Known about the structure:
Oligomer: single chain
Largest sheet: 2 strands, antiparallel
Shape: flat
Structural class: alpha+beta
Number of strands: 2
Helix content: 25-40%
Strand content: 5-15%
Order of helices and strands: EEHH
Radius of gyration: 15 Å
Distance between the termini: 51 Å
Amino acid sequence: MRTREPVVYNMHHRKARSRGGNSKPRNLSRVPKNLHVAYHQLFSNMQPDEIAALLTRIWIDPDFILVAVRREQ
């Protein structure tokens, strides 16, 4: 019988440090390592609006547009 590997987690900076993000809890997410690696392989350190534009251009059904909207602070 095959046993499951334990899930390894990483801390992900929601706003990249190279883009002015910090290491405060509000800017960190605990994510599975494999998803964290995949995210950065796909999106590097792009901002949400850049990701939405990329996905709209190459992945999303042409009848739709994906939009990232900044929350009011």
